[in-house]
Design goal:
The chain is of the alpha+beta class. It folds into three domains: 61 residues, Nucleic acid-binding proteins (OB fold (Dihydrolipoamide Acetyltransferase, E2P), Beta Barrel), CATH 2.40.50; 79 residues, 5' to 3' exonuclease, C-terminal subdomain (DNA polymerase, domain 1); 50 residues, Helicase, Ruva Protein, domain 3. Helices cover 45% and strands 19% of the residues. A five-stranded antiparallel sheet has the order 3-2-1-4-5, covered by helices on one side. Helix 8 runs antiparallel to helix 9 and helix 8 packs across helix 10. About 6% of the residues have low confidence.
Length: 195
Amino acid sequence: MIGRLTGLLLEKNPPQILLDVSGVGYEVEVPMSTFYNLPNSGAKVTLITQFVVREDAQLLYGFLTERERATFRLLLKVNGIGAKSALGILSGMSVEDLAQAIALQNAALLIRIPGIGKKTAERMLLELKDKFGTEFLSPQSAAGQPESGSSDVLNALLALGYNEREALAAVKPLPAGLTVSDGIRQALKYLSKTG
C-alpha cells in the first residue's frame, strides 16, 4: 500500500521517526541499522516502507535498503515472529550476519538477539533455511561463506569463547571434506598464529 516515502526528517526517537511528506507527518518505525544511518533532523530522506495492518493498529516500518525490507518480510512469515520481533532482529543483527547464521544453521548467533529464545531461533533456522539466498549476503561474505560442514567447527569455536568474527575467519580457509575434529584443530592453529 505505502511502499516508499520521501520527505523531511522532523524527529528521531528510536525506534520511531517522524517524516514530513508534503505537510503530512508519518510516524515510521525503523530498525537501529537504519536509524544510525539517518541524516540529521531537517534533512531530506527516502525510506522503503512496509505497511502492516493489525486488529488494533496500522503501522508503518521504514528501511534504507531493499535488502532490509525483504528480510523484514521474510521474518514476518516465520510462525511466531511479528513486526516488533522482526524489527528487533534487524536492530540486533545485520542482514548479512542473519543470512550467514541461517546458512550455517547456527542458533547460538540468533539467541544473542534480545527477545529471541532457543525455540524461536530454531524455528527461524528451519523456516528460513531455503529462503535466504546470496542476494542477502554482502559480496565479501558470499565469497567467504563457510561450507555447511564447517558449521560444527564454527559452533565449537564459539563455544570455546571466540567471537563470531574470529571464528568465521578461522573457518574460512579450511579445506572441504575435513572431519570436525581436524577442522577444529586447524582452526585453533590458525587462531593461535593470528592472536
